[in-house]
Amino acid sequence: MKKRKIEIMDTTLRDGEQTSGVSFSVSEKLTISQLLLEELKVDRIEIASARVSEGELEAVKAVTTWATANGYLERVEVLTFVDHGISIDWMLQAGVKVQNLLTKGSLNHLTHQLKKTPEQHFSEINQVIELGVKEGIKTNVYLEDWSNGMRNSPEYVFQYLDFLATQNIERILLPDTLGVLTPHETFKFLKDIKAKYPQIHFDFHAHNDYDLGTANALEAVNAGIDGLHLTVNGMGERAGNAPMASVIAVINDFLPEIEISLKECSIYKVSKLVETFSGVRIPANKPIVGENVFTQTAGIHADGDNKNNLYFNDLLPERFGRKRSYALGKTSGKANIEKNLQELGLKLNDADLKKVTQRVIELGDLKETVTQDDLPYIISDVLDSKAYQDKVKVESYVLSHSKGLRPSATIAIKINGEVYEEHAQGDGQFDAFMLALSFLYKSQGKLLPALIDYVVHIAPGSSSDALCETVITWQTDKKTFKTRGLDSDQTVCAIKATEKMLNIMEGQMQEYKGFEYQESSSK
Ligand SMILES: CC(C)C(=O)C(=O)O
Question: The domain spanning residue 484 has which CATH number?
Answer without folding.
Answer: 3.30.160.270
